[in-house]
Amino acid sequence: MAQLWGGRFTKETDKLVYAFNASISFDQKFLAEDLQGSRAHVRMLARQGILTREERDQILEGLDGIERDVASGVLEITDRYEDIHSFVEANLIDRIGDAGKKLHTGRSRNDQVALDMRLFTRRNLCELDAELRELLEVILHIMEENIKTIMPGFTHLQKAQPISLAHHMGAYFEMFQRDRLRLQDIYKRMNYCPLGSGALAGTTYPLDREYTAELLGFDGPTENSMDGVSDRDYLIEFLSAMSTVMMHLSRFSEEIIIWNSNEYRFVEIDDAYSTGSSIMPQKKNPDIAELVRGKTGRVYGALMQILTTMKGIPLAYNKDMQEDKEMAFDAMDTTKGCVRLFAGMLRTMRFNREVMLASARHGFTNATDAADYLVRKGVPFRDAHGIIGRVVLYCLDRGIAIDDMKLEELRQFSPAFDGDIYQAISMQTCVAKRLTIGAPGPEAMAREIALAKSYLEKH
Ligand code: ARG
């Protein structure tokens, strides 16, 4: 056991206690961030005259060496060290001797880990944002190709009114775009540097916190040192945003699973994104969509865990906060991975356009339009609603659509029906006539697509 403390102690830590307390098995994930933070810290210390230039250069060289040796496998991160911070410091001292002992001047592991976690979260936030951008590109492409692809729109999972596939996809574009806006917003709030907060009350060394913050790409230092070491709001916000991403992906997955079912056949998931059954040879299962739907629970779990961990912690740092890592790391990997896989599945998925059209035609999705037609011919809406209701019942008995009825048949329900009814309630007309902002009509869709495109060009 290589510990950073000991002077005050007369006994060795109990082995089980040591293992229980240690975090190296998971915080080694942010070695890069730990090194990045240490580099900025020594640069600042030297600039302030707290370390000499020689000491700074020796430390920087030592840190580079650690990075190189871990990457090449010469140096192994083992549980001999309590955490990644001890690992780096102990190795630095092994390498360069006394100068290494000065790295931690004016720093505490409390502000060090606060910094590492923030840097790591910031990097993951940017990576997730890039994955979401890719997904939006895929969705936009499907929108552009399918302005004229008619399908039923649903409420209560019952066919409601005809829409276009572009319109349906556009709804998801909005959702994932909002997810990106949320990330952008979180980034702005979190991008302040906690290093220099010390253990809780700053330090007596004349640190230039503005400079350290600048070196690390932050907008400035955090303001209050007690908050600096004990704030994990940014992580909670990020987990909440990831939970929302997963909720969106899960809804989308649910639809794809339904659309891919034998009964619907709206889509066919590519072989590369499907799996078979060990016993039923005919099976091609939408496992990826199901797994994405299932993994949503893990991310929600991580959000609940950190909220619960933080809720009873007095200021400032408490060891409870070490629990901010494992589940959050898992949530970050899970969410990024799910967005990436989902985008791939969507990109390679085939849409059965004829099946979608036939489904819209045979689900009375034009019933509202038929009622509106009668209204235009002078029938009050409530009467028109009743007439079309009876027409639907008549069709259901015969297994036909409204458009399949002859004009004489229609006239038995209302003399207001004319030859122009067929044009008025064709699927194409029903969609084309929906022209308000946000509707599936081609002009409204063209506008929506243009907005989506210009968003992606700029962001
Ligand atoms: N492994 C610790 C964590 O993740 C690092 C900070 C330790 N600080 C302390 N005072 N024991 O929170």
TrEMBL record:
A GO molecular-function annotation: argininosuccinate lyase activity
Example of a GO biological process term: L-arginine biosynthetic process via ornithine
Localization per Swiss-Prot or TrEMBL: Cytoplasm
Residues in Argininosuccinate lyase C-terminal domain copies: 364-432
EC number, as in UniProt: 4.3.2.1
Domain of life according to the entry: Bacteria
Keyword annotations: Amino-acid biosynthesis, Arginine biosynthesis, Cytoplasm, Lyase
GO cellular component terms, A-Z: cytosol
Fumarate lyase N-terminal domain location: 7-301
SUPFAM superfamilies assigned: L-aspartase-like
PROSITE patterns recorded: FUMARATE_LYASES
Pfam families associated with the record: ASL_C2 (PF14698), Lyase_1 (PF00206)
Catalytic reaction list: 2-(N(omega)-L-arginino)succinate = fumarate + L-arginine
Pathway: Amino-acid biosynthesis; L-arginine biosynthesis; L-arginine from L-ornithine and carbamoyl phosphate: step 3/3
NCBIfam families, per the entry: argH
Family in the record: Belongs to the lyase 1 family. Argininosuccinate lyase subfamily.
Protein name, UniProt field: Argininosuccinate lyase
Species this chain originates from: Shuttleworthella satelles DSM 14600
Encoding gene per record: argH
